[in-house]
Design goal:
It comes from Tepidimicrobium xylanilyticum. Residues 3-123 form the Response regulatory domain. By secondary structure, this protein is an alpha/beta fold. The protein is built from five helices and ten strands. β1 (2-7), α1 and β2 (32-37) form a beta-alpha-beta unit. The longest helix has 20 residues, at 111-130.
Length: 185
Amino acid sequence: MFTIGICEDNIEFLMELKTKIEKKFFQCNLDCEIYCFYSGEEIIKEILNSNIEFDIIFFDIKLLGINGIETARKISELDDSIIFIFITYLNEKVYEVLDLKIFNFIRKIHFHKEIDRILDSLINRLEYLAEKYPFPVGNVKIYLKLYDIIYLELLNRRVIIHTRTTNYTSNYRFSIILYHNYIYI
């Protein structure tokens, strides 16, 4: 399941965006949970005070209080793996977000033209991350999403698979695992 945040102070637009995202994820058979926030302070507080780990956050740049750019900067200091997508009427602000690791930028005046293309691109990336790989663990085979695997460790001829929630010890040969787009360090 992908955890998505939307930080937008225009409630009507927020609900339209939420509906578009839910519809697209449903069409692609991907599970998502969407949390809505109306200010940068609100989403930062949620991240600091809960155990929610966002995968994707959509930001309006112009927010009351801390703007979307500063909010994203603060959040990226806490977790730099989150995918950021900015949405705004302020086209000139696109250059201010280029120093952040952003996935894309949607101009509100072109929202209906751009949202489907950007969600399709996002889904393609997420489907790759959601692909499951088999690993023998003991006498059973478990299936892990690439997205959930943090890193693999070779220790005493066993592969330890470190995931977001737990670690698994596999008797897989490390050379078999390496061809699946892993970096060997």
